[in-house]
Amino acid sequence: MTRFTIASFNVKNLIGADQEFYQFMSYTPEEYAWKQDWMADQIVKMGADIIGFQEVFEEEALIDVVNEADRRGIATNEVTLPDRKKRYAKKAIFRKLAYAPYSDAAVAFAPNANDGEPGQRRPGLAILSRYGFKGAPEVIQNLSPALKIPMRDLGGGDGGHYILSRLSRPIQKVRIPVGKRVITVFNCHLKSKLGEFITPEGADFAPESDLTRYDAVGRAMGALRSALRRMAEAWVLRDLIVTELKAGHPVMVLGDFNDGEHAVSSEIISGENPFKNYSWMLRHDAQNGSDRYSRDENKHIQEAVNSMRLHSAEKLFVRKSLRDMVYTSAFGGVFESIDQILLSRHFHPDFDSKIGEMEYFSAFNDHITDGSHFEAPYNKLASDHGQIMAHMQLFDAR
User: Fold this and answer.
1) Is residue 225 situated within a structural domain?
2) I need a surface site. Which of 30, 101, 119, 288 has the fewest CB within 10 A?
3) Does residue 279 lie within any of the structural domains?
4) Is 290 domain-assigned?
């Protein structure tokens, strides 16, 4: 049996000092040192074998943080781990307390194809793996051909199309060898809920961004554009996931979904929740009211749906532990989980052919402050997201 941990960490704008990432936004050397200090502490606390990072502008800055975490972790080992000659040195607790450095770990960085000049930067993603990678990591962002989504007019005619040629942020796909298994891991950061406004030709800014002339309807249209993009990006990720599942590969998906578990975009990624009994359902080709799916067809449909589903690690843990609440984000009085770790049924405790399962789930969210609270600026240098980590056990391959 192999035990490992996998985590998701939105670092919130990781970039070196004195570099303007968004307009008029940069870190002083002291602010960057504080951010690096905080991130290194979080990585030492987690000690995860696999970490998917979001909002990374520079690979070098991430490597500096990981190296700082190693320095601290190794120093902690020297203080907390007893000399091997001591009779109690082999106690299990010391194995838990020991920090394993990332000196032999591999890093895959996915820059953002939308990245621009200073003040117009766009962050990418990264994955840190103690197990390395099998094959070359893949980055999916530019879509060729473009995703063309036909819309049906409610009157029965052509309702036009929604076309997506590039994702707002890349999707990372890596295969990671763990024990005698290989797991496909996706790292993502879907489009945020911030409104997507259009700047007219020749104008300096979109009219909706002028809050002194507040345009409620125009800003609602911006939110609609963001939601369309987020759901289309979710479908692109879903398509990649289904390809892996059909090939028989165990899958884990992690990242910042920018939506709660029951949002349409999240359900697109995880897949449909199967109907309890399709034998009750009117057939797709029904000729009369008694045309229902047969019992055998019900079993076939149930298997088809369940084989393509992903399951929330958080919800599996809540079911197991009776925990009341897990959250990774707070703003305006709303505490919710918009960061997720999803598992294919290869890791579901009720699946007869499972290859492993989750033992525990950790949430590192003590630093999260509600955006309406006066301490919220602390999030500028830390992160406005909590980190989540799944503790997994993987059964030996037969």
Assistant:
1) yes
2) 288
3) no
4) no
